[in-house]
């Protein structure tokens, strides 16, 4: 809370967005000032009796109470180092409340003019506090009271307490009587002059213009009385101020602006040299006049390639009438001066362009300042305020409500930014936006760099950002992809270096010799401003003039900033050890910060290594310039410093592990009293969140140490830690911590389940009604998390617990229960996923009924929309159930209802809307309507892109997989391949490589590789997917069977048929066990029928064929095959025939199957009876080809007459003339061969009538007229002559010759 008065700070409420960043924990620092001697009683009572109560009260409002009392326990060593005065005054600067109390003793002062140590204290403090030289002979206590109150009355809340002199007088008497003469000096003025100075100081404090600014000023009788009055005054003041901190005042802008103004001012106080060229370019750019010639960074094809269906769209989605110039990207290495350039240029620019709206944000200067959401909110509110300040409100839309804005998705906040920018431009206003330190932004696991920041800006709005050259990813994004203008900060030249040297040293009364100056100028590392400033600070801090050259040479030997920091750390460590008389205390502080996840607070550091306030003050002030404060969390300001700490103190990974273990133990100690409070009151979730942000991370870095895995499991399963980490933004971190265990997926799932179940039972025993935790919500979250982690089989127990507890609660209230409906909806979804369809429908139906009743009785539209959204979730669950049961038409119908309700309740852009589009696309895909599916999937991606503008969640990877499959079936392999790769990358980044959702993508890619004939690659994908599914769902899940099937296909195509058959057997066992045999692949079954037939293994082939004909997708050829295979079985091995496996059953199912007809014919032919075949041909309306097929079979079986009867049956049917002609021909020939000439003649007569130009038939009919019983030579001659005439017309010479010979013979016979 340092930097402004506690009243200003505590009366400002932090916006809800801040609390989401974990900034609930703030500090109240109270400085206690008094002479050390004689005031021990007050301090003892305060410390033991009152401080715990004050700390507890402050903590209830989210503040840490930190009492500062440097006199307590101060050592002779610290005094001998002449740091007492400087430390005291510095701590007052860093405090929020000042408390002074006095007895008779005036305090440490130079009464004789011979106190050299005090002289040294004045000398060391005067550089920072020059005013103290006016009070050269006053006590240190008086200097504290002047600095804390009299010199700046009203700036810091203060209170004073003066002990009555009668107590000290009596104390002196008592000590004399008891013989403790050495203690008497503590209760007696040092001398008369000291007594006068003390009384004069008290009168000055008590004067009217001072008193009106005091919290309290009292006299007291005894130390106990004094401590009681101090406690009462502090509590009274805190009770007046602290409750105001929870009021929803509109202080969002002020809270952040205060931090940023402070950072701005701190940069302006430091020397800045050069930069004129950069300043000129920045000014021209800010005025819209810049044309900066730059060479854009090269960008690889991979960097520039964007998925055809998933583009990183313009963040604001706002179109401008006229687009302005490209933003500037200010770039330098660590310590290269980016922030200083920004601040010093901005100072002059703002002064000269007061009509321009200017927004600036320094990332990392305060809690929440690294969060994109908060940056956008600040930007929007301050740009709107800039318009209002300039009186430009007419025609402008008003600023959005910050409270409502904070609850919106980030894509909506980005749109609000686009709107205010558009308003600025449309009204011909100008605005400048400066964002410093974008490389320090917080990005989650799925973070997309700066996707929330618009790529283009309207004319009149100009943007300047700064990044570190050590972040190539951001540089590629901004300079490579967006083509923003890079502006490199040049290294310092010698003139600039000399000017910096003078500006740093001259005010401190120091100067370098020419030799020393040349040492710096000749060192190329001093071209870096940070490096140079560190060297100069080291010179200032170095006290031995005669060794200065050697120390400077040692510093300048550092080849980079990291090595220089290493030297600084060593010097600081030696100083701390000398002054504090504790080994490695600074080392422990720096190691703690280094191994932490996000940095540490003062209180956490002190708790970790057991520092008292005096020790911490020295450490903090020695490190202050190298630290950043994100709220109360301290971290290293420079990455090079962080690396230096690692290389110096933790070069071995094992060292890091043990350091993390020590810090983890400290956080465990912090956690215990938080979750086990001594009183029945709400648990401070903000403090739990702070521990949760560090403890699991630390334990995950210690797993090489025996016993640490168990501790990690205990912490991850701790219900309070789980509740804090299971949020949309951190649940993947939680999954990641479990993955760190390094065990198999199956074992991890069992470990998670057992640990959470045990922890939940313990939680039930200790949870109270006032704790702020709901057991129903915890059970619900545990079940959802296990599903998120891929362990469906373990989640049901927690869902059932949540349902049963909520049903008991609901039974006491006649009104429908939304919480119960939500649990039933989730439980129904779970049952669908685990193939328990009846239970799924029952749960969804109950949930839908409850929500319909709630919607019908809703008091207003907002409430009704909420319940409509709940109804949509139920319809969605029912739709997915229909889809899994292959009732796709009904599924689409329910999805459309879902979509309608979601849009009505949530708007067009919401994750659930995107989910529904994805589900609709999946239905179309299943129907092979790929164009419609692609449209639906693209709609889903469009909405996802708007919802998740700052991240890439696994949902997007799932839609990309679906979209890729559509393109695969359209043979667009290029599109499909790009989408598959991106989908896999997104999902692996979000979920880890072993999550079962990854397996779905791998299955799709494997099928894609089969289509491309990359069978070995497909096999690898399928094997990996199989392992994931088995580990996640157990070995009997349908997804496992599907993975086996796909692996089987790849092995068959790779000619590894024996291995493929093993996979096939595994999948078949699952389908049969789960009683979903019809989901098995009948195509694979028949593949292995043929395989075993080729191996003469007819027994196995027969068994497989039995499965085929029992399958709902059976075909006629399966019945044909089983008949053939059965007949090949040895008679001794032939099983009894089941009627359902026979050809007759096949014909019943496939009555028009020629294959089955032939199979039946074979049996009939063996029995020499084809009557049943004739019946089949007639009753089943077989085509004429089937008749001829049966006829030919009969002929070959020497059953010509039965065959001829089939043809006779054919010509009796209403068949085509062509078929009748063929049948009559075969009948005539057949009966002729049987010497049944009358029938042959009959059919030839019919043939000639049907085909009068058929000269062969006429000829044959003529010949038959010669034979008995006709003996009609005349008619024979006529028919043959007709045949000859037709043959002559047809130029059939062979027939002509044959017919003439026959006529000649016939004439001879007649003669």
UniProtKB/TrEMBL annotation:
<feature type="repeat" description="TPR">
    <location>
        <begin position="1221"/>
        <end position="1254"/>
    </location>
</feature>
<dbReference type="GO" id="GO:0080008">
    <property type="term" value="C:Cul4-RING E3 ubiquitin ligase complex"/>
</dbReference>
<feature type="coiled-coil region">
    <location>
        <begin position="184"/>
        <end position="211"/>
    </location>
</feature>
<dbReference type="InterPro" id="IPR051191">
    <property type="entry name" value="DCAF12"/>
</dbReference>
<keyword id="KW-0175">Coiled coil</keyword>
<feature type="repeat" description="TPR">
    <location>
        <begin position="821"/>
        <end position="854"/>
    </location>
</feature>
<dbReference type="InterPro" id="IPR011990">
    <property type="entry name" value="TPR-like_helical_dom_sf"/>
</dbReference>
<feature type="repeat" description="TPR">
    <location>
        <begin position="914"/>
        <end position="947"/>
    </location>
</feature>
<keyword id="KW-0677">Repeat</keyword>
<dbReference type="InterPro" id="IPR027417">
    <property type="entry name" value="P-loop_NTPase"/>
</dbReference>
<dbReference type="Pfam" id="PF13374">
    <property type="entry name" value="TPR_10"/>
</dbReference>
<dbReference type="Pfam" id="PF13424">
    <property type="entry name" value="TPR_12"/>
</dbReference>
<dbReference type="Pfam" id="PF24884">
    <property type="entry name" value="NPHP3_hel"/>
</dbReference>
<dbReference type="InterPro" id="IPR025139">
    <property type="entry name" value="DUF4062"/>
</dbReference>
<dbReference type="Pfam" id="PF05729">
    <property type="entry name" value="NACHT"/>
</dbReference>
<feature type="repeat" description="TPR">
    <location>
        <begin position="957"/>
        <end position="990"/>
    </location>
</feature>
<keyword id="KW-0879">Wnt signaling pathway</keyword>
<keyword id="KW-0802">TPR repeat</keyword>
<dbReference type="InterPro" id="IPR007111">
    <property type="entry name" value="NACHT_NTPase"/>
</dbReference>
<dbReference type="InterPro" id="IPR056883">
    <property type="entry name" value="NPHP3_hel"/>
</dbReference>
<dbReference type="InterPro" id="IPR019734">
    <property type="entry name" value="TPR_rpt"/>
</dbReference>
<dbReference type="Pfam" id="PF13181">
    <property type="entry name" value="TPR_8"/>
</dbReference>
<dbReference type="Pfam" id="PF13271">
    <property type="entry name" value="DUF4062"/>
</dbReference>
<feature type="repeat" description="TPR">
    <location>
        <begin position="999"/>
        <end position="1032"/>
    </location>
</feature>
<feature type="domain" description="Nephrocystin 3 helical">
    <location>
        <begin position="522"/>
        <end position="625"/>
    </location>
</feature>
<dbReference type="GO" id="GO:0016055">
    <property type="term" value="P:Wnt signaling pathway"/>
</dbReference>
<feature type="domain" description="DUF4062">
    <location>
        <begin position="29"/>
        <end position="113"/>
    </location>
</feature>
<feature type="domain" description="NACHT">
    <location>
        <begin position="329"/>
        <end position="504"/>
    </location>
</feature>
<protein>
    <recommendedName>
        <fullName>Nephrocystin-3</fullName>
    </recommendedName>
</protein>
């Amino acid at each position: 809370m340092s930097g402004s008065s506690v009243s200003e700070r505590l009366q400002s409420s932090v916006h809800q967005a801040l609390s989401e960043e974990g900034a609930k924990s703030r500090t109240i620092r109270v400085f206690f000032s008094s002479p050390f001697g004689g005031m021990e009683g007050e301090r003892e009572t305060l410390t033991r009796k009152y401080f715990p109560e004050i700390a507890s009260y402050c903590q209830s409002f989210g503040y840490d109470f930190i009492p500062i009392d440097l006199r307590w326990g101060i050592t002779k060593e610290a005094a001998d180092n002449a740091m007492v005065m400087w430390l005291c005054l510095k701590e007052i600067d860093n405090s929020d409340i000042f408390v002074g109390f006095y007895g008779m003793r005036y305090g440490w002062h130079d009464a004789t003019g011979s106190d050299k140590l005090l002289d040294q204290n004045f000398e060391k403090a005067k550089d920072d506090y020059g005013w103290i030289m006016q009070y050269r002979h006053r006590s240190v206590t008086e200097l504290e009271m002047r600095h804390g109150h009299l010199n700046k009355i009203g700036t810091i809340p203060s209170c004073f307490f003066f002990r009555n002199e009668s107590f000290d007088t009596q104390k002196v008497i008592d000590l004399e009587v008891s013989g403790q003469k050495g203690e008497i000096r503590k209760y007696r003025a040092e001398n008369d002059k000291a007594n006068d100075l003390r009384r004069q100081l008290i009168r000055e404090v008590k004067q009217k213009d001072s008193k009106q600014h005091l919290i309290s000023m009292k006299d007291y009788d005894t130390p106990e009385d004094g401590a009681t009055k101090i406690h009462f005054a502090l509590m009274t003041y805190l009770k007046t101020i602290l409750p105001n901190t929870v009021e929803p005042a509109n202080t969002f802008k002020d809270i952040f602006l205060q931090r940023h103004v402070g950072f701005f001012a701190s940069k302006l106080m430091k020397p800045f040299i050069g930069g004129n060229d950069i300043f000129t370019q920045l000014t021209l750019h800010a005025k819209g006049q810049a044309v900066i010639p730059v060479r854009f960074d090269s960008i690889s094809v991979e960097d520039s390639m964007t998925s055809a269906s998933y583009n990183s769209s313009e963040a604001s989605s706002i179109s401008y009438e006229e687009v302005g110039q490209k933003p500037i990207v200010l770039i330098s290495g660590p310590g290269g001066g980016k922030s200083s350039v920004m601040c010093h240029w901005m100072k002059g620019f703002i002064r000269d362009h007061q009509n321009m709206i200017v927004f600036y944000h320094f990332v990392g200067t305060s809690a929440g300042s690294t969060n994109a959401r908060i940056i956008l909110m600040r930007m929007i509110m301050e740009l709107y305020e800039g318009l209002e300040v300039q009186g430009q409100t007419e025609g402008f839309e008003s600023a959005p409500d910050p409270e409502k804005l904070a609850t919106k998705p980030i894509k909506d906040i980005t749109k609000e930014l686009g709107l205010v920018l558009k308003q600025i431009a449309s009204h011909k206003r100008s605005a400048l936006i400066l964002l410093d330190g974008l490389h320090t932004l917080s990005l989650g696991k799925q973070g997309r760099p700066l996707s929330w920041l618009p790529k283009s800006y309207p004319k009149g709005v100009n943007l300047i950002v700064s990044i570190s050259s050590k972040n190539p990813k951001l540089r590629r994004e901004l300079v490579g992809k967006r083509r923003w203008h890079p502006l490199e900060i040049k290294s310092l030249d010698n003139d600039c270096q000399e000017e910096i040297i003078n500006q740093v040293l001259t005010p401190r009364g120091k100067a370098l010799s020419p030799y020393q100056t040349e040492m710096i100028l000749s060192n190329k590392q001093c071209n870096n401003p940070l490096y140079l400033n560190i060297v100069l600070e080291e010179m200032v801090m170095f006290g031995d003039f005669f060794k200065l050259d050697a120390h400077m040479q040692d510093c300048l030997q550092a080849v980079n900033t990291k090595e220089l920091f290493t030297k600084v750390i060593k010097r600081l460590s030696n100083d701390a050890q000398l002054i504090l008389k504790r080994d490695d205390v600074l080392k422990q502080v720096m190691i703690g910060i280094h191994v932490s996840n996000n940095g540490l607070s003062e209180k956490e550091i002190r708790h970790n290594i057991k520092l008292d306030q005096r020790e911490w003050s020295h450490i903090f002030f020695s490190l202050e310039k190298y630290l950043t404060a994100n709220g109360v969390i301290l971290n290293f300001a420079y990455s090079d410093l962080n690396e230096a700490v690692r290389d110096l103190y933790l070069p071995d990974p094992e060292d890091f592990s043990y350091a993390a273990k020590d810090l983890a133990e400290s956080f465990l100690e912090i956690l215990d009293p938080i979750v086990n409070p001594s009183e029945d009151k709400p648990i401070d979730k903000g403090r739990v969140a702070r521990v949760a942000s560090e403890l699991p991370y630390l334990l995950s870095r210690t797993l090489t140490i025996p016993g640490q895995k168990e501790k990690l499991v205990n912490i991850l399963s701790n219900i309070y830690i789980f509740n804090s980490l299971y949020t949309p933004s951190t649940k993947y971190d939680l999954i990641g911590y479990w993955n760190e265990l390094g065990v198999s997926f199956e074992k991890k799932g069992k470990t998670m389940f057992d640990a959470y179940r045990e922890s939940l039972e313990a939680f039930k025993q200790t949870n109270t009604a006032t704790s702020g935790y709901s057991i129903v919500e915890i059970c619900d979250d545990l079940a959802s998390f296990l599903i998120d982690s891929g362990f469906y089989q373990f989640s049901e127990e927690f869902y059932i617990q949540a349902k049963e507890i909520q049903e008991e609660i609901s039974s006491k209230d006649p009104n429908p229960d939304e919480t119960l409906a939500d649990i039933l909806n989730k439980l129904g979804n779970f049952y669908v996923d685990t193939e328990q369809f009846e239970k799924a429908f029952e749960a969804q139906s109950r949930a839908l009924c409850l929500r319909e009743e709630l919607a019908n009785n809703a008091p207003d539209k907002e409430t009704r929309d909420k319940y409509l959204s709940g109804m949509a979730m139920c319809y969605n669950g029912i739709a997915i159930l229909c889809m899994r049961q292959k009732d796709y038409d009904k599924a689409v119908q329910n999805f459309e209802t879902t979509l309608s309700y979601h849009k009505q309740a949530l708007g067009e852009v919401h994750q659930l809307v995107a989910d529904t589009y994805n589900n609709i696309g999946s239905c179309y895909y299943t129907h092979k309507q790929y164009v419609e599916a692609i449209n639906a999937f693209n709609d889903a991606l469009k909405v996802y892109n708007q919802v998740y503008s700052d991240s890439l969640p696994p949902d997007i990877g799932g839609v990309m997989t679906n979209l890729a499959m559509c393109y695969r079936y359209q043979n667009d392999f290029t599109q499909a391949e790009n989408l598959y790769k991106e989908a896999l990358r997104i999902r692996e980044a979000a979920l880890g490589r072993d999550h079962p959702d990854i397996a779905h993508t791998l299955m799709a890619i494997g099928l894609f590789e089969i289509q491309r004939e990359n069978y070995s690659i497909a096999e690898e994908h399928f094997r990996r997917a199989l392992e994931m599914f088995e580990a996640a769902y157990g070995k009997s899940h349908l997804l496992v069977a599907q993975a086996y099937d796909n692996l089987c296909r790849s092995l068959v195509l790779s000619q590894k048929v024996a291995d493929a058959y093993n996979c096939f057997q595994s999948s078949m066992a699952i389908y049969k066990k789960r009683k979903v045999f019809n989901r098995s692949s009948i195509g694979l079954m028949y593949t292995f029928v043929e395989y075993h037939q080729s191996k003469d293994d007819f027994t196995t082939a027969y068994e497989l064929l039995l499965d085929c004909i029992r399958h709902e997708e059976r075909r006629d050829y399966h019945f044909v095959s089983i008949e053939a295979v059965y007949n090949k079985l040895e008679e001794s091995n032939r099983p009894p025939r089941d009627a359902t496996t026979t050809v007759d059953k096949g014909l019943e199912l496939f009555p028009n199957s020629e294959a089955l007809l032939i199979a039946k014919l074979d049996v009939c032919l063996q029995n020499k009876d084809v009557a049943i075949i004739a019946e089949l041909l007639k009753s089943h309306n077989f085509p004429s080809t089937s008749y001829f097929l049966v006829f030919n079979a009969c002929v070959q079986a020497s059953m010509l007459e039965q065959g001829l009867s089939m043809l006779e049956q054919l010509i009796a049917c209403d068949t085509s003339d062509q078929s009748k002609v063929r049948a009559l021909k075969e009948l005539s020939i057949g009966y002729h061969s049987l010497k049944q000439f009358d029938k042959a003649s009959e059919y030839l007569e019919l043939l000639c009538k049907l085909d009068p130009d058929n000269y062969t038939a006429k000829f044959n009919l003529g010949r038959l007229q010669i034979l008995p019983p006709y003996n009609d030579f005349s008619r024979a001659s006529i028919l043959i002559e007709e045949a000859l005439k037709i043959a002559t017309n047809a130029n059939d010479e062979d027939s002509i010759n044959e017919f003439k010979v026959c006529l000649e013979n016939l004439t001879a016979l007649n003669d």
